[in-house]
Design a protein that fits this description.
The protein is α/β, with parallel strands linked by helices and 357 residues long. Helices cover 47% and strands 15% of the residues.
Length: 357
């Protein structure tokens, strides 16, 4: 890059990353009755981003490998802000909000390839508490590119069903056994998008992350279950290609994905060593039907919001009590300001509970 392009990059990156951080704030603190207040608190970071994006238009074609992902990330972020503001006037506000927020993982996916070459982008994709960890920053900076590391997708295009996405830390060492996080999206979601709910933490603390997509519109919560065999299929593939620690295999999920964490994870032949349902529905029969050999001593980490409007918090309290009585080793975390959204700050605690520093 010439000096002018470097100046453009220095001017462009902070508003882009700030705009994305504030979209993450919206995703975390979204509570339907407070939406307009939340939107006002976020302000207008997109205004500066729009202005600075113009600077990249004059870059030479030789820099398209940098300009194209930056502008794609900016376009997705701006589309999210446009959608959020329009949602305030939509008769189906919540649906419109969720539609707008679908642009956020697209922005992350466009931006992530630049983490290897742009330190501010690399820091953005770390847990904020670890962005000043010199050893972690050094390890990522010196990681050698490999076909088996980074973000990979297997039959997991945005509209596909039954595939999975995976993140393998760039500093992966095949001689070490790595903890595994299998994270299940919510209803009507997909694993390709849900990957970004966990990537920062897997990248910061050293875990292999797998985010499958349900075979149907959502997970098989009743009736025939094609999803559990599919999880086993993809798990066998992952274990055959990467060195997975058999003592640290976590199944977790959000909303319907959390409920399916119970449904599939309590199966007597489930290979998962730990379960962590988040904002999930629970029925007492799930505990009563579980075989004692499976549930006794099984570590289960439950996270739920006191403001959850879809699955009231009493459901999670009942889950913790019933599973504990059945012999599971239950950890229950209730978050006072959490509605029915994903609490990304809980990931570090879940990983620590799993034994990942």
């Amino acid at each position: 890059m010439e000096e002018r392009e470097l100046d453009d990059l220095v001017a462009f990156l902070p508003p882009l990353l700030q705009a994305l951080e504030r979209l993450g704030f919206v995703s975390r603190y979204l509570n339907p009755p407070d939406f307009e207040e939340l939107l006002a608190a976020v302000g207008q970071p997109d205004a500066e981003l729009r202005g600075q994006a113009q600077r990249l238009q004059a870059w030479p074609e030789a820099l398209d490998h940098v300009r194209a992902p930056l502008l794609a990330a900016a376009d997705a972020a701006l589309a999210a802000y446009d959608g959020l503001r329009a949602a305030a006037h939509d008769p189906e506000t919540l649906t419109a909000v969720f539609r707008a927020l679908r642009h956020v993982p697209r922005a992350n996916e466009a931006l992530y390839p630049l983490a290897a070459s742009l330190p501010p982008v690399s820091r953005f994709f770390l847990d904020p508490d670890l962005r000043t960890d010199a050893e972690l920053v050094r390890r990522l900076a010196h990681a050698e590119p490999s076909a088996g590391t980074g973000v990979l997708h297997y039959d997991n295009a945005p509209e596909a069903r039954g595939g999975f996405s995976i993140y393998v830390p760039e500093y992966y060492d095949p001689e070490a056994a790595w903890p595994l996080v299998v994270a299940l999206h919510g209803g009507s979601g997909n694993g390709r998008n849900f990957l970004w709910s966990w990537l920062r933490d897997a990248r910061s603390r050293g875990a292999i992350l797998v985010t499958p997509t349900a075979t149907g519109r959502t997970w098989a919560l009743s009736g025939p279950d094609p999803d559990t065999p599919n999880l086993i299929r993809l798990l066998n593939y992952v274990r055959g290609r990467w060195n997975i620690d058999p003592a640290r295999m976590l199944l977790t999920g959000m909303s319907d994905g959390g409920t399916f964490t119970y449904v599939s994870g309590l199966e007597p032949t489930s290979p998962f060593t730990h379960l962590a349902p988040v904002s999930a529905a629970f029925h007492p029969m799930l505990a009563s039907f579980a075989e004692p050999e499976r549930i006794t001593g099984l570590p289960i980490h439950i996270v739920h919001g006191a403001l959850d409007w879809m699955f009231p918090v009493d459901m999670a309290r009942e889950a913790a009590a019933d599973l504990g009585k059945s012999g599971a080793a239950v950890t229950y975390v209730e978050i006072d300001d959490l509605s029915h959204t994903y609490p990304r700050e809980a990931n570090a605690q879940i990983l620590a509970w799993l034994g990942v520093a």
